[in-house]
Amino acid sequence: MSDDALFLAELTPQRIVCMTEETTEWLYLLGEESRIVGISGYTVRPARARAEKPRVSAFTSAKIDKILELKPDCVFGFSDMQADIAAALIRQGVQVTVFNQRSVAEIFAMLYQVAAMVGQGAQGLEKIALMQQQLAAIKTQAASLPRRPKIFFEEWDVPHISAIKWVSELMGIAGGDDCFPELASQSLGKNRIIADGDEIVRRNPDIIIGSWCGKKFRPEKVAGRPGWENVNAVKNKQLFEIKSADILQPGPASLTDGVAQLHRIVMDWSRLHV
């Protein structure tokens, strides 16, 4: 190892625990997966991570003793939902960095910060620029649509929970309009609950997309809801699933595969409604 490499190793974390999927996926994309010593049990991207790395956390809980046994020099977490886990680790002397990205811009900021922390700032910027170019291309194509569909994105079914901010923004980039834009800025799911399902019917979405955090979307259940038979999305069979790992992960997945699926759904709808 060169002197420069040794110096960089002293400045950057070498043993990282990632308590959510997005930082794991990003470190793999940066070629820095060797630094990861523990991951979230919900990790599915990349698939090989589950085979290669020990699982030490869920989302709101973690195996503190197991994390400590791994001797991490940095733990990455996400949001206020992991505040208690972070506090427990900090009390044990562990360095913890908790990101709280809720928008597309904040996701990009998180990606750059993680890349810089592992000495890959330049490569991180290159990959970020490519993702931004891809988003710009999608937005340009969507701008030519003669009509934008209204989209109801359902993060949970009972109660109905609408789209978080980055998903709402990605729907806009993909060519659709969020049926509940006023709720998108609410970071907590409990503040995006739509208590009256009739309000969804009144807003009459053209497309319904389900991403029911951890369970399979059931379009037939949506279509069978009382009073929903005249909703455009139900009448025209425009009910789709995007896996939560592809869209509800505030990292590379949502900015690539997630938005691509949104855009494909919108473009297919548009061809039917010229």
SSE ordering:
HEHEHEHEHEHHEEHEEHEHHEHH
Uncertain runs with pLDDT below 50, 5 residues or more?
A: none
Distance between the termini: 61 Å
Q: Treating each run of at least 4 consecutive H or I residues as one helix, how many helices?
A: 13
Instruction: Give the class from helix and strand content and strand pairing.
Output: alpha/beta
Q: What's the story with the biggest beta sheet?
A: 5 strands, parallel
- Portion in helices: 40-55%
Strand order of the largest sheet: 3-2-1-4-5
The proportion of strand residues reads: 5-15%
The total beta strand count reads: 11
By oligomeric state, this entry counts as: single chain
Sum up the overall morphology in one term. Answer: globular
The value of Rg in angstroms is: 20 Å
Mean pLDDT comes to: 95
